[in-house]
Design brief:
Blueprint: E1 3-4, E2 7-8, E3 13-18, H1 22-32, E4 37-43, H2 47-57, E5 61-63, H3 66-70, E6 77-80, H4 87-96, E7 100-103, H5 111-124, E8 128-130, H6 138-148, E9 155-163, H7 183-199, E10 204-211, E11 217-225, E12 231-237, E13 246-250, E14 253-257, E15 266-271, E16 277-280, H8 292-303, H9 314-331, E17 350-352
Parallel strand pairs: 3-4, 3-6, 4-5, 6-7, 7-8, 9-12, 10-17
Antiparallel strand pairs: 1-2, 9-13, 10-11, 11-12, 13-14, 14-15, 15-16
Bound molecules: NADP nicotinamide-adenine-dinucleotide phosphate.
């Protein structure tokens, strides 16, 4: 066992889990399967919640408040899995106490909160990463490498959608403004992040949405534009299950990702004048819907003493948050406590009123 500063070198990485809901359980189940990961502590808003989760996954320490987890020196990295509205508070608490943090997507409610966390991590020399597991997926990395190598020429358009029919009560986090509800932040973050993976930050954003009585977006369509003439059309919904497909068109071809573009098991490359080429996932990469790649990337970075992942760079996360802010600005979704423009601090974007 050895540690260099805050970095882990040869032993298991010790994880703490903050919040005990749906994705916390899914991610923890993946973690406990990894031989070089150890889940050593969990925190919940209630002691009973933490104890039940600890018992379910065989976790030695259960805390009834977040602060105790944040101060646990024997935790290398905390995974924050609260609703989005609490990401800033939970991740901030951990970073201030000297913990490294993997924070669920969307990273925060808006770019101001995101910039605060990024500054905290950088000032304190701590690792911080948005849990944008799509960027760690081997097939997505393969697709990006092909695009970067010019397989389809210059990217002209990206299309991607993520919609599901979520029949949930208004109190559910997906419909609750106080918990950052709506399709855009929960699901739209994927197509936006996908487009920005390939094209970087857009210079223009237009959007339209259908809002719920509570004031969150039930579905949103946005058109993103780039100075080089590229366009991305992204769509998200919590009232209809979409194909969850993506298509990238370039000057010399196209790549189609048939479904589940954020964790694909295959995609098809159409190069102009050639037969289509199908790319399929390597069975050695494990189950399709796996958070292991993301966990491995965090642990690789910690062992290397890195404070940021090159696969999910913080500047990329900030750029996505600026776009989400701009979309919310266009569709008129504000969350309680947000003052002024959500996109404050964002670069001037061309405004086309929704
Ligand atoms: N990466 C992915 O594929 C994926 C999938 C689903 C969700 N997510 C993201 O993960 C986050 C959590 O989603 P989820 O589906 O797991 O939600 P969830 O099932 O509602 O769980 C959230 C947990 O956070 C705690 N919590 C609830 N309300 C809270 C509040 N107002 N303030 C602070 N903590 C609260 C609770 O844990 P305690 O009772 O223990 O405090 C709750 O169980 C969201 O940001 C979501 O976008 C990511």
């Amino acid at each position: 066992m050895s540690r260099v500063g805050n970095a882990v070198t040869e032993r298991s990485v010790r994880w703490g889990i903050l919040a005990t809901g749906g994705i916390a359980a899914t991610f923890t189940a993946d973690l406990v399967d990894l031989p070089d990961a150890e889940v050593v502590a969990v925190a919940s808003r209630t002691r009973a919640g933490a104890e039940a989760f600890a018992e379910r996954f065989g976790i030695p320490r259960a805390y009834g408040d977040w602060d105790a987890l944040a101060r646990d020196e024997d935790v290398d990295v905390v995974y924050v899995a609260t609703p989005h509205s609490a990401h800033r508070a939970a991740a901030g608490l951990c970073l201030r106490a000297g913990r490294n943090v993997l924070c669920e997507k969307p990273f925060t409610l808006n770019v101001r909160e995101a910039a605060e966390l990024v500054a905290l991590a950088r000032e304190n020399g701590r690792f911080l990463m948005e849990a944008m597991w799509m960027y760690c997926n081997p097939m997505v990395r393969r697709l990006k490498a092909l695009v970067d190598d010019g397989a389809i020429g210059e990217v002209r358009t990206v299309q991607a959608d993520f919609g599901l029919a979520a029949e949930v009560p208004p109190s559910h986090r997906l419909r609750d403004p106080a918990q950052g509800g709506g399709a855009l932040l929960d699901l739209g973050v994927y197509p936006v992040s996908f487009a920005q993976l390939l094209l970087g930050e857009p210079s223009g954003v237009t959007a339209r949405a259908v809002l719920s009585e509570e004031g969150v977006d039930l579905q949103t369509g946005a058109l993103l534009s780039w100075e080089n003439g590229a366009l991305a059309s992204v769509h998200c919904s919590i009232v209809g299950g979409t194909a969850t497909s993506a298509s990238i068109t370039g000057s010399r071809g196209r790549i189609d990702v048939p479904d589940g573009f954020f964790f694909p098991d295959r995609f098809v490359l159409h190069r102009d004048g050639r037969d289509p080429e199908e790319f399929t996932a390597d069975p050695a990469d494990g189950p399709r819907a796996s958070y292991r790649h993301q966990a491995r990337e965090v642990m690789r970075a910690l062992r290397a003493g890195e404070t940021e992942s090159p696969l999910v760079p913080l500047d990329g996360t900030l750029a996505v948050m600026r776009t989400l802010d701009a979309v919310r600005d266009r569709i008129g979704v504000r969350y309680p406590g947000e003052s002024g423009a959500t996109g404050e601090g964002a670069p001037a974007l061309e405004v086309t009123p929704a």
